[in-house]
Every structure is written in structure tokens, then in C-alpha cells.
Design goal:
By secondary structure, the chain is an alpha+beta fold. It has 4 helices and 19 strands.
């Protein structure tokens, strides 16, 4: 029985090997017959790029004050409504000043009397009919009266609250007839034609920062409709806890879209240079290694390791591994195999979407 079973087992093993061989041959034949995958490629180009720093910053008005009273008095007039645009010197509020106004008028009468007395004393002194002491006393009395008028004019003027600069007022916090005390808020005033944007940058980038550098800032993470500006000031101190320095940029806000206190995403570019660039979609990261599929003149795919540098939205700097004019796969990468042919469906220059590329290359 054992002598018969050994040939049978050998025949079964041989049959299994035959089936495996036939399966491998069949798989290879199918792979050869399978059509080359269609891909979209882009050329490696030379372009301008820069190191990009991104941070979150807080918007501030160019000038900003809280309008308050310095007196305890009743409000008799308000010269603005919520959200009004006001000009420098415009009256925002008037406080009851009748007592001080009456005192001022009395002081002005006294000043006129003493000036008249001084004039008479000067005339008498010129005729040697008055002593020098009388002339000095009259002159001193006139000066005291003038000082009294100046002080009361300043006191009366404190009852009139004016805009210190052009800007936009906030909400009205008092009403006519209200009694205000020193420090009570009447409204706020902000000059937002330009916006100061303060944002922290790690101190290791200090050598790359300087006033005059261009920045762009947006109100959301998508970066849509960025507002352009320039670096105005690089902070003089490094925070010992965060090891960062505060940068202040100035943004144009004539459109009025930015409000003080808003959180903005800001991007700052430094070290501008010319470099080889590929679309970010061409990268195939494997751990810390970056690869791309390069398509040769015979449309054969070659898996190649590259070294990358700076990144910008949609673009990557190539430091090594590629040459200007080579073609890399940007769409259809998952179907490409190293050493296998591909069908180049379209060449993308970055100006058209994937849908447009496919529709323009579709078969009739």
C-alpha cells in the first residue's frame, strides 16, 4: 500500500506545480494584454519660489480709543449714531457747561475792566501822573484776569468731546440726559483704513525677517481672497517662554472687510529664488522619502527618489533628482507601475482643472 501511495503523491505534487506554472503564465499574459493606464503629466519647470512662514495673527486698528468723559456732568447733545464715520475734531458729545460758561463770561468782563485800567495807568505814566508801582499793579491785575479767562475757556472746552482722529465710531453707550462720571464709556473710535496685524514667528527665523517684506493675510484657513500688506516692524524682544518674536504688518483695509480683534492667517515669504518646481500632486511620500513617477520619451514610468525644498500652495521646490523639462505623473498615480508603459492623456500646465483636461482630451 505504501509503495503505491508514493507515486500517487508525486503525481499530485507534479500536477500542483503545473497548475501554479500555468497560473503564473496566464497572469503574465494578462498583464501584457492589459492596456496601459491613462495618466496626466506635468513638466518640471523653472520658476520663482520663496521660503514660506505661516502664523495666526490678531488684527488691530491703526488708531483706536475708548471715548470717555473726564467730568461728572449731564449729556445735553450727542453728535453721532452707531457706526458713523467721523472726522477729526467732530463733536461727539456735549456736556452741560452752563455754570462754567457763566464763570467764563464773568471772567471776560473782569479782563476787559482790568485791560482798560491798565491802559489808563499807561497813559498816566506816560505823562508822569502815575507811579511805576501803580502801573505794575495794573499790569499784573490784567495778566491775572487773562489767565483766569484761559483756564475757564479750557474748563468749558472739556465739556465738548471731539473725535481725536478720522475713524468709525462703535456703539453709543449713553443717551442725551444721562449723567456721566469720569471714565464712563460714551463710545469707541477706530481708524480701520489700515490694519495692524500682529503675529508671532519663531526666533530662529529672525535673520529672514525685515521691514518691507510682503505678506498676505486671509480671514479663513482656505486662504481665499488674501489681503496684501508689508512688514512694518520686527519686535525688539524674544518671548522667553515661546521663543518667538512678534511681527507687525500693515494691511490695506479700505474695503472695510477686516475688523479689529479678528483672527487672521498670515503668510510671509522670504529668501526669494529661482528653482525647479513640480506640482505637489506628483509627490508620493514613503516615510521621509519623496518619490515621483517620471515618464520617459517611450512613455515608460520610472519610479525616482527626489529631494524637495520649500512648499507653496500646489507647488514644491525640487533640490535634486529631476531635470528641467522632464515629465512627472500628477493624476492616475495609483495605476502606474515602475517600468511599465502608460498612456499620457494630457499635459497639465496648472491653468486648467482636471475636469477641463479630461473633457478636452475625450475621444469623439
Amino acid at each position: 500500500m505504501d509503495s503505491l501511495s508514493k507515486p500517487t503523491a508525486a503525481r499530485r505534487a507534479a500536477a500542483a506545480l503545473s497548475l501554479l506554472f500555468l497560473s503564473a503564465v496566464s497572469t503574465a499574459a494578462l498583464a501584457q494584454d492589459r492596456p496601459a493606464p491613462a495618466v496626466i503629466v506635468a513638466e518640471v519647470t523653472t520658476g520663482d519660489i520663496a521660503d514660506r512662514l505661516e502664523a495666526l495673527g490678531t488684527a488691530r486698528a491703526t488708531e483706536s480709543v475708548t471715548v470717555t468723559s473726564v467730568l461728572a456732568e449731564r449729556v445735553i447733545e450727542l453728535g453721532f449714531d452707531d457706526g458713523d464715520r467721523v472726522t477729526e475734531g467732530q463733536v461727539l458729545a456735549r456736556l452741560d457747561n452752563r455754570i462754567d460758561a457763566a464763570n467764563l463770561e464773568r471772567a471776560r468782563v473782569t479782563l476787559r475792566e482790568r485791560r482798560n485800567a491798565l491802559e489808563r495807568a499807561e497813559n498816566l505814566a506816560a505823562k508822569n501822573l502815575a507811579s511805576a508801582e501803580n502801573l505794575d499793579a495794573a499790569r499784573l491785575a490784567a495778566q491775572q484776569a487773562a489767565a483766569e479767562v484761559t483756564g475757564l475757556e479750557a474748563q468749558v472746552d472739556r465739556h465738548i468731546i471731539r473725535a481725536p482722529f478720522d475713524g468709525t465710531v462703535g456703539l453709543r453707550m449713553v443717551s442725551v440726559g444721562a449723567l456721566v462720571s469720569p471714565g464712563d464709556v460714551i463710545t469707541t473710535l477706530d481708524d480701520t483704513r489700515q490694519i495692524k496685524l500682529d503675529f508671532p514667528v519663531p526666533a530662529i527665523h529672525l535673520t529672514k525677517l525685515a521691514p518691507g517684506q510682503r505678506v498676505s493675510a486671509s480671514l479663513d484657513a482656505s486662504g481665499v481672497n488674501p489681503v496684501e500688506g508689508v512688514v512694518a516692524t520686527v519686535g525688539s524682544r524674544v518671548d522667553p517662554v515661546t521663543r518667538s518674536v512678534v511681527i507687525r504688518a500693515v494691511l490695506d483695509n479700505r474695503a472695510g472687510d477686516i475688523r479689529p480683534g479678528m483672527l487672521m492667517r498670515v503668510a510671509l515669504e522670504s529668501n526669494p529664488r529661482t528653482a525647479l518646481i513640480v506640482p505637489e500632486s506628483a509627490l508620493m511620500p514613503r516615510g521621509k522619502v519623496q518619490n515621483v513617477f517620471v515618464i520617459g520619451a517611450d512613455n515608460t514610468a520610472e519610479l525616482r527618489e527626489i529631494t524637495i525644498g520649500a512648499r507653496t500652495p500646489g507647488k514644491v521646490e525640487v533640490l535634486a533628482g529631476l531635470s528641467d523639462g522632464e515629465r512627472v505623473v500628477t493624476d492616475g498615480i495609483d495605476k502606474v507601475r515602475n517600468g511599465r508603459p502608460v498612456t499620457v492623456r494630457a499635459v497639465s500646465d496648472g491653468s486648467r482643472s482636471l475636469t477641463e483636461l479630461l473633457s478636452q482630451t475625450a475621444a469623439p
